[in-house]
Structures are given as structure tokens and as C-alpha cells.
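Async update (no meeting this week)

Hi team, since we skipped the sync, here's where things stand on the single-chain job. The sequence we agreed to prioritize is pasted below, unchanged from the tracker. I ran it this morning and attached the output directly underneath so nobody has to dig for it. Comments welcome in thread, and please keep replies under the output.
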Amino acid sequence: MPIARINGVDLYYEITGQGFPVVWCHEFAGDYRSWDPQVRSFSRLYQNVTFNNRGYPPSQVPEEPTAYSQDLLVEDLWHLLRHLGLAAAHLVGLSMGGNLVLNFALKYPELCRGIVVAGCGAGTTNRERFERDVQHVVDTLLRDGMEALASVYTKGPTRLPFLRKDPKGWQEFRDHFAEHSALGSALTFQGVQLKRPTIFALKERLNRLRVPTLLLIGDEDEPCVEPAVFMKREIPTAGLVVLPQSGHTINLEEPAAFNAAVLAFFQAVEAGKWAARDQVSTSLLP
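Output:
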């Protein structure tokens, strides 16, 4: 089992395939297994790195709340790339992983050939409801455990399109989520999701980002639609793909469309054809 001592914790990772590296960063309800449809496809052309964040077994589960923050996840990712000897990589993240990839690129742009930020921005809008939901999730985890939360969380409004389209895939996703650490998940929700800056708060830093960026959302992932449009407007190197009648877990819900969009993005970046805007204008005239 490949375990690396990273930034004071043990992280589990897997490497599949050969070629230019792609690092896949999982969402709160996922883990390294969530990227299986992508690894199977992209390992034909790329070296794929999947890993579990701190708090997600078989990675270490620190018991101190101070061991969980988005800044620590960014540093974990930096140390992992260093441990693997990667001078640069494509980075892909969904939800919590998308936020991680975005903030990693803001701090370490020189390590990013291109970034894919998918389903990112929950908690940016309707903030009061988000904070109530966070507390409910934490209370459920600490009182009733992972199985109780999995039965509810995976049937939220943004997950139902996945269940509707692919009940077998959804069941596997739900069962994997139920295997997570209740303590690690609770501390992750409290320390990472609740305390990270909103997408709107990153405006000035987004304006300075020059890393090629692909934004991906499902049109039924309501908490992430407005943040995605905002990022498209504020990041000069951003392109936006919207998958129709799709929810939050788009890499599993629509793997063919997701993979095609990501591969086309990688190819454009590698060919030097991914464009950057000098400025944003709403005028119809030059």
C-alpha cells in the first residue's frame, strides 16, 4: 500500500499509467476511488495520481480540529507533488477538490500546466443555509455515524440526477461514502468547507490567475452555478462547460462527457491553443 509521510500526516496514493502527470483531487463525499472512470480512460495517455486527503482512510485521520483546513490541504498537495518528483502537472478537482485545485493554482501556478475546477463553489451563495447544513452534517456524523449521513447526504437535490440516471453507479458511490471516517469527515466539514473563503472573496486573485483553467458544472448543481459563471468572468484563462440535466457528481454521473471535455482541454493546453482574455467587456462593439 503506497503511503507517503506528507506534511506531518500519512497519505495514501495510487499511480496508474505513464506520460505527463494528471493529479485528481476528490470531493467531500468521495475518495481516490471516485476517479476510477477517469483513471481507466486517461491512463492510456497520462500518468494518473489519485490520493485520499487527510481524514480519509487509508490516509491518516488526525483527531485535532486544527489539523483540518484548506490551507493545510494545499500544502499537502504541494508536498505530494514534491514527494513524487513532479515538476508540473495537470490538476483536476471536483467540489472540495475543485476548491483545492483552484487555491493551489493561486499559490503555486508554476506547478500547474492546466487546472480543471468542477462543481466548485458551494457555500458561496445562500451562506446562512450553508452554515446550517454544515452544522447538521457534523451533528449527524458525530451522533449517528457515516451510515446515517450517507443515507441522507447522497439523496440531496444535487445528487438526485446521478441516482435517476445511473442507480448502480450511485449505489457504489453511496456505499463508498458510508465507509469513510465519521470523525475525519466531521472535522473536514468544519475545518475545510466551513472556513474556506468563498469564490466571490477570491475576485482580485482570480483576476491575476494565468493558468489555463477549465470550469465544469452540471446545470442542476444549483449552489455551484453562480460561482462557476463568476469564475468564468473573473479568470482571464477560463472556459466553462455546462452539462445539461446534471448534478454535482458529474465525473461519475456523466463520465463520457466529462472525460471528453477534460481531454479536449488538455490537448488544447499542450498544443498552446488555450486562449487567454486580456480584459472582460460587455460591449457589442470593439
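Quick observations from my side:
The beta strands are 3-6, 9-16, 21-25, 47-51, 89-94, 112-118, 213-218, 238-243.
The chain has a mean pLDDT of 96.
Reply here if anything looks off.
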